[in-house]
Design a protein that fits this description.
Elements lengths: L4 E7 L6 H14 L4 E4 L2 E3 L3 E3 L5 E3 H10 L10 E7 L2 E6 L2 E7 H7 L1 H18 L2 E5 L17 H7 L3 E6 L5 H11 L2 H4 L2 E9 L3 H15 L3 E6 L27 E6 L4 E2 L13 E6 L2 H4 L4 E4 L1 E2 L2 H10 L2 H10 L4 E5 L1 H5 L3 E3 L10 E3 L6 E20 L2 E17 L7 E3 L2 E3 L1 E2 L5 E4 L8 H14 L10 H19 L2 H16 L2
Parallel strand pairs: 1-9, 1-10, 2-9, 3-6, 10-11, 11-12, 13-15, 13-16, 16-18, 18-26, 19-21
Antiparallel strand pairs: 4-5, 6-7, 7-8, 14-17, 19-20, 21-22, 21-23, 23-24, 25-26
Helix pairs in contact: 1-2, 1-14
Keywords: Cobalamin biosynthesis, Glutamine amidotransferase
Function: Catalyzes amidations at positions B, D, E, and G on adenosylcobyrinic A,C-diamide. NH(2) groups are provided by glutamine, and one molecule of ATP is hydrogenolyzed for each amidation.
Protein name: Cobyric acid synthase
C-alpha cells in the first residue's frame, strides 16, 4: 500500500453510527486540506448511488465522497449486496451487476474473488489520496463469520489501518457492547483498536463520566469522544432502520398529509427526504390499507423486487385503495422507479429477473407497460419536466432492470437526453418516473406542493434549497464531531501507527 493515511471506523452493531462518523471525518479531513476518499469494501443496502461515470455503489459512500468534495467512484465500494428475495441478493462488483447469489454460495464461492477486488480497489485509492476513511459493517465480533469476512478486521489488516470502535448509547448497554466486542477480537486485531467513540448521547456527560473512567481503566482503551445526538441532520441515511424517523402518528400535525407506501423491498428511500424540509407536510409510512386514510399525496418509492412488492400491496388492500382514492379525486400519486412500474398496466418478467411469474397486472393508473430485462440501467439524468403548464429543469439518477413502453393515451413527464421519460395521467394527478431524486429538485417540489396548498386554502411557500441544506449539514456535522471527539489525537495516532508499522 502507498502514501495515504487510513483510519477505520467499526461498530458494535449495525446502525451504531459508523456511516455518520465516517462522513464527518471525510468532511473534517477535506476541510483541513487533505484529498480524502471514503471506502467500504462490502456494503449491503437497497439504498444505492450512481457515480458520475454510471457505476452503482452504496449510497453512504457516495454521500461520503460528496462530504469529502471528491467524485464518487466504484473503488470506494467495490462490492454492493442488494437483497432481492428471501436468502438471495444481487451482487454488484465495481459498480456493475455480477449476478444473483444465495447467501451460502456467496460466502463459500465468492470469497477469494471478492478479496482480490477489495485489495485492488484499496490499493488504487491508497495511491491517489492523502486520507482514506474506511467504514466497517455490522460488528467485527461476529465469531461465526470471521473466517471469511470481507469488511471489518480483514480490511483493517489490508490497509494497515488503526480502528476506532463506535458504540450507540441510545440502545442501552453501551459499555457491555464495547467491552464484549473488544473481548471477542483476536489479540492482534484488538491491538488495532486505538479508542472508542460513544455515539448518540443524550443528557449530562458528567453522569456518564464514572463509566468512562471505568472503561478506560478496565480495558486500557481510551474513550476518544462522546458525541451527543444531533437532530434534524439533512444527510442521506442508508440503513432502513432510519426509516423510523418517518413514522408519524395519524394525529400529528401537518397541513399536507403524505403517505409513503413501505413495502418489504423498499429501495432508495432517500427520495422522500426532501419532503421533511417542507414545514407544513406530515410524512408517514404506510404498510396496510387501514393506515392509509385519505392523504393528499401517496408516494410509491423504488423497490428491489417490484413484482413481489406489488403483490404485497395487493394482498394488504393497498393497491385497490390507492386506485379508489385516485378515481375519487381524493389523492395524488407519485411513483418513483419501481413505484412507477407499479402504476402501469402490466409488469412482465420473461427472464425471471425477480420472480418465476411471467407477468403481473399493475395498478392501471398510467398508460405504460414494463418488461424487466437482464441488463441494469445506471445513469445520471437531467432534462425538462412539464407539469401544470410549467417547465422545470430537473436532474437525478436512474437504477432499474426494466424498460417501460407507452400505451395509447401516454404523455411523457420528462424530456431527458433526447428521449421521453416517465409518464403522467391526463389530469396530472398521477406522475411516474425512473428518475430518483425527483423531489430534490427544489423548483418542481415547491410548485407541486404549492398547487396543493392553494387547493387547501394554504398560503404558498417560497423555494427551499434542499441540495444546499446537505452542504450545510456536512459542515454542521463536522463541527459537531470536532467539538466532541479528539480529532487531533486521532490524527496523531494515525501517523504514529504508520510510523511504528514502517519501523524495522
Amino acid at each position: 500500500m502507498a502514501k495515504a493515511l487510513p483510519i477505520m471506523f467499526q461498530g458494535t452493531h449495525s446502525d451504531a453510527g459508523k456511516s455518520v462518523i465516517a462522513t464527518a471525518f471525510c468532511r473534517i479531513f477535506a476541510q483541513d486540506g487533505w484529498k480524502t476518499a471514503p471506502f467500504k469494501s462490502q456494503n449491503m443496502s437497497l439504498n444505492s448511488y450512481v457515480t458520475p461515470d454510471g457505476n452503482e455503489i452504496g449510497r453512504a459512500q457516495g454521500i461520503q465522497a460528496e462530504a469529502a468534495g471528491v467524485a464518487a467512484r466504484a473503488e470506494m465500494n467495490p462490492i454492493l449486496i442488494k437483497p432481492s428475495r428471501e436468502h438471495e441478493s444481487q451482487i454488484v462488483v465495481l459498480g456493475k451487476p455480477y449476478g444473483n447469489m444465495q447467501a451460502f454460495a456467496y460466502r463459500n464461492e465468492f470469497f477469494h474473488q471478492g478479496l482480490a477486488v477489495i485489495r485492488r480497489s484499496l490499493e488504487t485509492l491508497m495511491n491517489e489520496y492523502d486520507r482514506i476513511v474506511i467504514e466497517g459493517a455490522g460488528s467485527p465480533a461476529e465469531v461465526n463469520l470471521n473466517d471469511r469476512e470481507l469488511v471489518n478486521m480483514r480490511v483493517a489488516r489490508l490497509a494497515n489501518a488503526p480502528v476506532v470502535l463506535i458504540g450507540d448509547i441510545e440502545r442501552g448497554g453501551v459499555f457491555a457492547s464495547l467491552f464484549g466486542t473488544l473481548a471477542l477480537l483476536e489479540p492482534e486485531d484488538r491491538k488495532r483498536v486505538i479508542g472508542v467513540i460513544i455515539n448518540k448521547f443524550r443528557g449530562d456527560v458528567a453522569l456518564l463520566q464514572p463509566g468512562l473512567d471505568w472503561f478506560e481503566q478496565y480495558t486500557g482503551v481510551p474513550v476518544l469522544g462522546v458525541v451527543p445526538y444531533l437532530p434534524d441532520l439533512a444527510i442521506d441515511a442508508e440503513d432502513s432502520l432510519a426509516l423510523e424517523r418517518f413514522a408519524a402518528s395519524p394525529d400529528e400535525g401537518g397541513a399536507i398529509d403524505i403517505a409513503v407506501i413501505r413495502c418489504p423491498k423498499i429501495a432508495n428511500f432517500t427520495d422522500i427526504d426532501p419532503l421533511l424540509s417542507e414545514p407544513d407536510c406530515r410524512v408517514r409510512l404506510v404498510t396496510h390499507a387501514d393506515e392509509l386514510g385519505e392523504p393528499d399525496v401517496i408516494v410509491l418509492p423504488g423497490s428491489k423486487n417490484t413484482i413481489e412488492d406489488l403483490i404485497y400491496m395487493k394482498k394488504r388492500g393497498l393497491a385497490s385503495r390507492i386506485v379508489s382514492l385516485v378515481n375519487e379525486g381524493k389523492a395524488r400519486v407519485v411513483g418513483l422507479c419501481g413505484g412507477y412500474q407499479m402504476l402501469g398496466a402490466v409488469i412482465r418478467d420473461p427472464y425471471g429477473v425477480e420472480t418465476p411469474l411471467p407477468e403481473v397486472k399493475g395498478l392501471g393508473l398510467l398508460p405504460i407497460e414494463t418488461t424487466l430485462e437482464r441488463t441494469k440501467i445506471t445513469i445520471r439524468t437531467e432534462g425538462m419536466l412539464t407539469w401544470a403548464g410549467e417547465r422545470f429543469s430537473v436532474q437525478g439518477y436512474e437504477i432499474h432492470m426494466g424498460r417501460s413502453a407507452p400505451l395509447p393515451g401516454y404523455a411523457p413527464l420528462i424530456e431527458a437526453d433526447g428521449r421521453h421519460e416517465g409518464a403522467k395521467h391526463s389530469d396530472e394527478r398521477v406522475l411516474g418516473t425512473y428518475m430518483h431524486d425527483l423531489f430534490h429538485n427544489d423548483a418542481f417540489r415547491t410548485a407541486f406542493f404549492n398547487n396543493i396548498r392553494r387547493q387547501k386554502g394554504i398560503a404558498p411557500s417560497g423555494v427551499r434549497l434542499f441540495r444546499s441544506l446537505k452542504e450545510k449539514a456536512f459542515d454542521r456535522l463536522a463541527a459537531h464531531v470536532r467539538q466532541h471527539v479528539a480529532v487531533e489525537r486521532i490524527e496523531q495516532i494515525m501517523n504514529e501507527f504508520q510510523q511504528k508499522s514502517a519501523a524495522p
